[in-house]
Specification:
302 residues, alpha/beta, Rossmann fold, 7-stranded parallel beta sheet, 11 helices, 7 strands, 48% helix, globular, binds NADP nicotinamide-adenine-dinucleotide phosphate, KR_dom, Ketoreductase domain-containing protein, NAD(P)-bd_dom_sf, multifunctional enzyme
Length: 302
């Protein structure tokens, strides 16, 4: 049940941030943190602790204002039409629209975090590149002389029943989570001190499975094992959060599209309210038993 573990009131997270030492000097790194549900968690950290936030993702951050020809197009279909009018070849329109939407989401996250009082910086780093990830961790630590918290949330889905799955697709889905998290944990082990917390964003699919998600379920299950082994190896705190589906919200829709959300509603699966989800995690980190390697958070049955 959502938020049943971890004590304390479901307030604004300020007491939790203070208990975790997340003040203006603290530094939290979020891999895959500029978009989706992790951007929501970053906003909760910003509002509660005003800590410095370092965000990584593959999307290229927009340089300067968007071309007025596309800027007025606010949703995907308007954007596709605007791009087609600009002469982008039809087979490339969808990818171009995705790039623009992702860039806008990154920019909106950075604006939101700084409005909430957190200095935030974004770097384009592919978590599937272990050397780049290690370098980013080293640079962040070297710049501030500390790393208080880390969130690993990079993930992709390419759902298909196993019999029809292309091995390369399986590898992408699995590696983005499992290999990326392993590289991150190795990089953290090289720092002079472990962060106060390291959170791995997993999925309830790891525990209960989901049609078309054999790769994704395996990857999320692997996260928990990687975190537990890292704790044994380093003594650091690693918590895997196996999330149930979140309700899509505003700019940060995440992996649950409106269509999927409707499907869940039809099946009677309630979706995690984003504010409740982020505060539940903050409470777990602040008051939860540190030796617990994983928690499952869901708003209802699966
Ligand atoms: N939304 C849910 O209901 C739900 C439920 C269970 C678990 N989760 C987990 O929560 C995490 C976030 O999901 P979401 O729903 O917010 O999905 P999302 O909007 O697709 O976010 C995924 C994030 O991962 C980043 N990412 C993907 N591949 C990457 C790579 N190779 N290197 C660096 N960053 C990468 C993406 O940024 P770029 O595209 O810019 O790289 C994005 O920030 C995922 O790990 C997911 O498995 C979500």
């Amino acid at each position: 049940m959502l938020g049943r573990t971890g004590a304390g009131p479901a307030d604004d997270g300020v007491a939790e941030a203070a208990a975790l030492g997340l003040d203006r000097d603290a530094v939290v790194l979020l891999v895959g943190g500029a978009r989706g549900i992790t951007a929501r968690f970053a906003a909760t950290l910003a509002a509660a602790g005003h800590c410095r936030l370092e965000l990584l993702g593959r999307t290229a951050a927009p340089e300067g204002p968007e071309d007025p020809a596309t800027a007025a197009a606010r949703d995907r279909s308007a954007l596709r039409a605007a791009l087609a009018r600009q002469g982008v070849p039809l087979p490339k329109v969808d990818a171009a629209a995705s790039r623009l939407l992702a860039g806008r989401e990154v920019a909106a996250t950075l604006d939101e975090l700084s409005a909430l009082g957190s200095p935030a910086r974004y770097r384009t780093v592919n978590a599937a590149d272990p050397a780049a990830l290690r370098q980013a961790v080293k640079e962040v630590h070297a710049e501030y002389g500390r790393l208080d918290g880390v969130v690993y949330a990079a993930g992709v889905i390419e759902d298909k029943v196993l019999a029809e799955k292309d091995p390369e697709s399986f590898r992408r889905v699995f590696a983005t989570k499992a290999h990326g998290a392993a590289a991150l944990l190795d990089a953290l082990a090289e720092l002079p001190a472990r962060p106060r917390f390291t959170v791995l964003f997993g999925s309830i699919a790891a525990a209960l499975g989901n049609r078309g998600q054999a790769d994704y379920a395996a990857a999320n299950d692997a996260l928990e094992e990687l975190g537990a082994r890292w704790t044994l190896r380093t003594g650091g705190r690693a918590l895997t959060v196996h999330w149930g589906p979140w309700a899509p919200s505003g700019a940060h829709g995440g992996m649950v599209s409106e269509e999927l959300a409707r499907d869940y509603r039809r099946r009677g699966v309630r979706l995690i309210d984003p504010d409740a989800g982020t505060l539940a995690l903050l409470r777990e980190l602040a008051w939860g038993e540190e030796s617990v390697p994983s928690v499952v958070y869901t708003a209802s049955g699966w």
